[in-house]
Amino acid sequence: MKSDNPPIKHHYIPAFYLSRWAVSGKVTEFAKVYGGRVVSKGKAPEATGFQERLYEMRGHNPAHAQQFEEHYFKPVDTMAADALEMLYRHGHNAPWTAKSRTAWTRFVLSLLLRCPEYIETFRDWWHDDFGRTAPRPKATI
């Protein structure tokens, strides 16, 4: 199903995960500012750990450009949120199933790959690698 309002705020650290560290509804965000100084600020989990259009497929029809976020990360994060809630409720006695184990594993692996620096590296590699063309093979008769 195509969304009429596709998401452009892409969390590389999902809000459901950050919210576990919230105090009074806020997590501490650290940022390096002009001059190299580090400052901290309390923010809602939904207001940090994201970059607009991070997973956007640039150059594609706007109706399809956000599909990676909608069809990959949203389901990964939704299933992981359920698995994390189960873990918090039951601790080491959580009733893990193949589905919940897979959901949590997929989420943890996604955290290793979804940061802005890696996404940009992947974009560069993709354009460099797929931008090259090989000579067309000659037809043999």
Q: Sum up the overall morphology in one term.
A: extended
Number of helices: 4
Instruction: Order the strands across the largest sheet as they lie in space.
Output: 1-4
Structural class: alpha+beta
Sequence of secondary-structure elements: EHEEEHHH
**Average of per-residue pLDDT values:** 88
Q: What's the N-to-C terminus distance?
A: 47 Å
Total domains, how many?
Answer: 1
Strand content: 5-15%
Summarize the biggest pleated sheet.
2 strands, antiparallel
Pfam families: DUF4238 (PF14022)
InterPro entries: DUF4238
Protein name: DUF4238 domain-containing protein
Give a description of the structure.
The protein is extended. The protein has helices at residues 15-18, 67-90, 98-113, 116-131, and strands spanning 9-11, 27-32, 38-43, 50-52. 43% of the residues lie in helices and 13% in strands. It has one domain. α2 packs across α3 (98-113). It has four helices and four strands; from the N terminus they run βαβββααα. Strands 1-4 form a two-stranded antiparallel ribbon. Strands 2-3 form a two-stranded antiparallel ribbon. By secondary structure, the protein is an alpha+beta fold. It comes from Pararhizobium capsulatum DSM 1112. Pfam families: DUF4238. This is DUF4238 domain-containing protein.
